[in-house]
Amino acid sequence: MTQSEPVCTTRQGAVRGRLTPSGAAAFLGIEYARAHRFAPPGPPEPWTGVRDATAYGPTAPKAPYAPPFDALIPEDSIPGDGFLNLNVWTPSPGPGARLPVLVWLHGGSFANGSGSAPAYDGSAFARDGVVCVTLNYRLGAEGFLHLDGAPDNRGLLDQIAALEWVRDNIAAFGGDPDRVTVCGESAGAMSIGVLLSTERAGGLFGRAILQSGAAHHFLRPASARLITARLAEKLGLAEPTSEAFAGVPMEKLLPAQAELRAEIGARPDPARWGEAALNMMQFEPVAPGLALPGPECGVQLLVGSNREEYRLFLVPTERLEVLPERKLRATAQAYGLDPDVALPVYRDSRPGAVPGEIFDAVATDWFYRIPAIRLAEAVPGSYMYEFAWRSPRFDGRLGACHACELAFVFDNLSEPSYAPVIGERPPQGVADAMHGAWAAFATTGDPGWEAYDPAGARTTMIFDEESGAAPDPRGRERELWDGVR
After folding, report:
1. Residue 13 · residue 49 · CB < 8 Å
2. Is-same-fold flag (7-185; 295-479)?
3. 1, pLDDT greater than 70
4. Is 186 considered catalytic here?
5. Taking residues 310-338, what's their average pLDDT?
6. pLDDT tens, 80-137?
7. Which end of the chain, N or C, is surrounded by fewer C-beta atoms within 10 Å?
8. Percent of the chain at pLDDT above 90?
9. Sign of CA dihedral 136, 305, 424, 129
10. Model-wide pTM > 0.85
């Protein structure tokens, strides 16, 4: 191994990485499993010699984001086979260092995203003594469509295969397989919410960080069958089976997926789409019901959300100012709230707010904040956070929206792909606080504030220009959801 060409040896073969400007070693595009259409992942093929790992590998097939989100959310697409690959950043390549490990699961509504987006460069974690791993998993119908003759949640099986690869190989990169933290945002965090109660994932990680996603959003089999039947109909398939879908070329399947999502958005009828009518995601983990972990799960948790998550979906689409009161009331009722009781409480702390701003608060709580709280309540000793820094984009109306925290977690504020959401001059102090807490939690299990106690202060760290812990933020609004799923 030379200084400019670090080499590490996995169980499949040796890989040659490269040094980053910060001095970390990066190993990119390492295949951790083989994807077989609508089947569990298979083991990667071994190789002889030293394989180059200096460039990102292929990404999982996906349709692009629809406008205007295609201009806002970091995304990349690299064609090719072997897309079940991962990337490793380490400050100490080679066995012996036994450093903590953070494994990142990207978001993207289970239909988009990749581990190779430049936004997820793990150099800052490596700089701070944490081995960082990012990965791809199967998306859309390939990863999550409910099919006769195929296992459910194939994308989650991919994630488990990647975690098994980390267990078996990360020591060669200086990591400690007994100190693994799995971390994810949005769909990545929702994936972790399922993995926490998945027997096969037991023992693969001892800590977890869930950003803007928890365990409450999934499709029951009956709803999943509705999605499958409609997609099969769109594709002209006689039967919605794995064999039939395996005969559909990707260039035909991906546009049909995108059209299906648009159909759900245009006509969000629960009789037609089941749970997907409320959260607008046609691909999610399939499960018979909510399975919250308990104290016996043996995993330390750091979980939270952004204060104004839903503004990402309201402001760029120009819906925030025009959303009608009737839509707000109907949605609150569909979420299980009494509009006459709940909406005045939300308005009390937002004087003069238009219906769209109250809609953001209610939808943010239903989709993100309350599931995070329920998960923290289920696992004693969990830590809670809220990201509250407000983006200046869209004349400040975008606020502390969904995905706004990512650049701060990765301490990667200069990455151009973040600018459409966070602007050109985001505060470094927020990144210092948030990234530092994530690195500390991965290293010691303590992010730097008191754990969340449902019977006590409900301490929550607020990340903002001035970060600090606060007791039970917006407690009156939280209490409205008692007894609501």
Report:
1. yes
2. yes
3. no
4. yes
5. 97
6. 999 999 999 999 999 989 999 999 999 999 999 999 999 999 999 999 999 999 999 9
7. C
8. 95
9. negative
10. yes
Active-site residue, 216 included: no
Q: What pLDDT sits at residue 2? A: 47
Whole-number pLDDT of residue 3? 52
Query: Structurally, what CATH architecture does the domain formed by 295-479 represent?
Result: 3-Layer(aba) Sandwich (3.40)
State whether CATH 3.30.450.40 applies to domain 7-185: no
Contacts of 6 (CB under 8 A, 6+ apart): 16, 17, 18, 19, 25, 27, 93, 94
Q: How far apart are CA 111 and CA 107, in angstroms?
A: 9
CA atoms of 392 and 153, how far apart (whole Å): 38
* pLDDT (0 to 100) of residue 485: 75
For 403, the token pair is: 């995905």
Phi, psi of 299 (to 5 degrees): -120, 130
**DSSP conformation letters of 404-455:** TTHHHHTT-TT-GGGHHHH-S---HHHHHHHHHHHHHHHHHS--SSPPP-TT
Place of tokens 């689409």: 317
Q: For the chain, how big is the Rg over CA atoms in Å?
A: 22
Which of 116, 186, 382, 391 does the annotation list as catalytic? 186
Residue 75: pLDDT above 90?
no
Q: Would you give the distance in Å from CA 135 to the centre of its chain?
A: 12
- Residue 309 known to be catalytic: yes
Q: How far apart are CA 130 and CA 217, in angstroms?
A: 30
The residue from 309, 386, 405, 477 that is catalytic is 309
For all residues of the chain together, what is the average pLDDT?
A: 96
Supply 53's token pair.
């790992």
Q: Half-sphere exposure of residue 324, counting CA atoms within 13 Å on the CB side?
A: 3
Residue type for position 47: W
Catalytic annotation, pick one of 123, 402, 405, 435: 402
Name the DSSP class of 241: B
The residue extents of the domains of the chain are 7-185, 221-279, 295-479
